[in-house]
Design a protein that fits this description.
Blueprint: H1 2-24, H2 28-46, H3 54-65, H4 75-88, H5 94-98, E1 103-107, E2 120-124, H6 125-145, H7 147-157
Parallel strand pairs: 1-2
Helix pairs in contact: 1-2, 1-6, 2-3, 2-6, 3-4, 3-6, 6-7
Length: 173
């Protein structure tokens, strides 16, 4: 499982590097998309189920991500933010509109996090990314020491996207 954990770590690390590069280039929506997709991937790997659900995302976030954030936040709030970013490129989602979950807004660079207003939460995007990196390392450490988790992650690795390789001369016209 060590080899598989390292492959997972490399793939997730690449996502984090691309998110950091996106922040550096002021491509904040793209950085957030990569951040939330990486959390989604971690949550999927962390569940024995074939497919992950919002509850899995929230559980993973509460255990591995939220404790590392500078601002108190819940997995439920991050789920609402994830849905807004991935589906609407917005801070609004069904969770914030219908279920009373605080909207998450973002600052970056040298900006400081202002005090939150009622119904809103403000995260520093670099802190979110850094916290995700720490959480991912914690998750991989758990993966290496938890045989049941290792077993279902190993099965899921067979489903992860891989490049299609064609052999020259065997392509169909």
């Amino acid at each position: 499982m060590y080899k598989e954990a390292m492959l997972i770590g490399k793939s997730l690390s690449d996502n984090l590097k691309l998110a950091k590069e996106s922040i550096h280039r002021s491509m904040f929506p793209q950085a957030l998309i990569l951040i939330y997709v990486t959390i989604d991937t971690n949550a999927w790997l962390n569940t024995p189920n074939t497919y992950s659900k919002g509850e899995d995302f929230q559980k993973w976030s509460d255990k591995y991500l939220c404790p590392n954030l500078e601002v108190k936040c819940t997995g439920k709030e991050l789920w609402g933010a994830r849905c807004g970013v991935l589906h609407n490129v917005s801070s609004k989602s069904e969770s914030t509109e219908k279920h009373g979950v605080r909207e998450i807004h973002y600052v970056w660079g040298t900006q400081t996090v202002p005090p939150p207003k009622e119904g809103f939460l403000i995260l520093h995007i670099e802190n979110l990314l850094e916290s995700l990196g720490k959480g991912t390392v914690m998750f991989i450490d758990d993966l290496l020491s938890d045989p049941p988790l290792s077993d279902y992650v190993e099965q899921k690795l067979k489903k992860i996207l891989k490049p299609v390789v064609t052999i020259r001369g065997n392509e169909k016209n």
